[in-house]
Backbone:
């Protein structure tokens, strides 16, 4: 499937994306345990910017947020005046794998609610861009819950087996060290949703 087709698909979801608070909750869970004052933070497949904005609490020197969807990035950037008055986030439209960053240049890589669209190829790129000792934080859907079907399934790569438990989620980051995974659940009173939240360190 072409990048243009993928971008068009996600463009079509951009208007409603911010209406789902679960994405923001996942982003906050990813950022919460990370160290303060990083140099460069990369937000992979930023969507409407939840993780990029959450990362500002760490007081980074710079955040680079990339997404294939122009509509997603436009919605993210529209929030910058209120949420990023210092202009620390750079927004860029384009493929998020590979990230447009130099080798071993990033202190933190974030990927919130997007790994199931990127596939296993993302992990090699995250190792490439992270400094030794740099931190990775990503969320991943449960294979027991995530059952893509219809046209949606075409956007999910088949090179990644979705984990069934925390051990399986941690195993995805097999080339990293100090890996931890936990189940992150939100019950909004109407439905219960959960993903695995994984933190790891580049060797």
Residues:
């Amino acid at each position: 499937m072409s990048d243009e087709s993928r971008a068009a698909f996600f463009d079509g979801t951009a208007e409603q994306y911010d209406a789902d608070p679960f994405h923001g909750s996942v982003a906050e869970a990813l950022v919460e345990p990370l160290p303060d004052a990083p140099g460069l933070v990369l937000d992979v497949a930023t969507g409407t910017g939840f993780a990029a904005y959450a990362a500002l609490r760490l007081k980074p020197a710079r955040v680079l947020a990339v997404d294939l969807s122009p509509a997603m990035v436009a919605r993210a950037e529209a929030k910058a005046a209120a949420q990023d008055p210092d202009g620390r986030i750079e927004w860029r439209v384009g493929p998020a794998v590979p990230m447009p960053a130099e080798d071993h240049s990033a202190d933190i890589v974030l990927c919130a609610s997007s790994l199931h669209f990127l596939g296993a190829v993302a992990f090699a790129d995250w190792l490439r861009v992270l400094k030794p000792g740099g931190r990775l934080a990503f969320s991943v859907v449960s294979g027991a819950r995530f059952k893509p079907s219809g046209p949606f399934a075409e956007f999910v790569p088949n090179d990644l087996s979705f984990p069934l438990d925390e051990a399986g989620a941690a195993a995805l980051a097999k080339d990293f060290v100090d890996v931890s995974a936990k189940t992150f659940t939100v019950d909004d009173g109407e439905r219960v949703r959960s993903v695995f939240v994984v933190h790891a360190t580049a060797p």
Summary: The chain has a mean pLDDT of 94. The two ends are 33 Å apart (CA to CA).
